[in-house]
Design a protein that fits this description.
By secondary structure, the chain is an alpha/beta fold. 36% of the residues lie in helices and 21% in strands. It has one domain (3-255): Alpha-Beta Complex (Spore Coat Polysaccharide Biosynthesis Protein SpsA, Chain A), CATH 3.90.550.10. The chain is built from 8 helices and 9 strands. Strands 1, 2, 3, 4, 5, 6, 7, 8 and 9 form a 9-stranded mixed sheet that branches.
Amino acid sequence: MKISIITVCFNEHQVIRKTIESVISQNYKDIEYILIDGGSTDGSLEIINSFSSNISCLISEPDNGIYSAINKGLSKVTGDIVGLLHAGDLFYDKNVISNVEKCFKQSTCDLIYGHSMVYSKDRKKIIRKNVSPKYRDNLMRFGWFPSHQSIYLRSSVFEKCGYFNEDYKISADYDFILRVLLVHKLKVKRLDKFIIKFYLGGTSSKNIMSIMESNYECLTAWRQNNLKISFYTLPFKITRKILQTIIYFLGLKKHG
């Protein structure tokens, strides 16, 4: 079973090496590694090129943002299973892809998700552990959303559900998961293991205003997918996101 991993990068010379090394150190070897660089000018591309023998497909050119880059990577996928690992983030350990492959072989699920470990921006301090609940159909209605980098999907999912909607600037991943889980109702399974180490600071978690913008896009996604949203869904999601941000800063203060 071939597993395709997509990394998107733009001017991440300080962290891209460790991300690539995290992929090539996996003990599962049937990996198609696709790296999409947005035309970096900070030396990232030179580092990426030093690993050319480990990269199945490399594209370096300007794009229209992270979801544009992801879609570009998805168009190059030839594997059976697809996952994302953004520049700067790492697999939890060397067994992640082996565990992913085993989970798919043992079930008929279309999507699996797991746990994530959240670090401070300097990647030295653990801020919190995101332990995902066992899947239930109503989880998203109660504000839950899996870390999209802990998600792995059969490549056939994209034929059924399409790619990421680039009209969304922050929440195209949320819109995509809505389509997978609630529109197409594909089969989902939790992999009860840690999958990824990442740091807070993405576009949707920078400040309160971006949190509000993200949730406005989420509301739009429910409506555009002709889904009825419960009155408590976004309040729960907003509260969860704000609490995550507060915990993040309290964690920094505690460990600072």
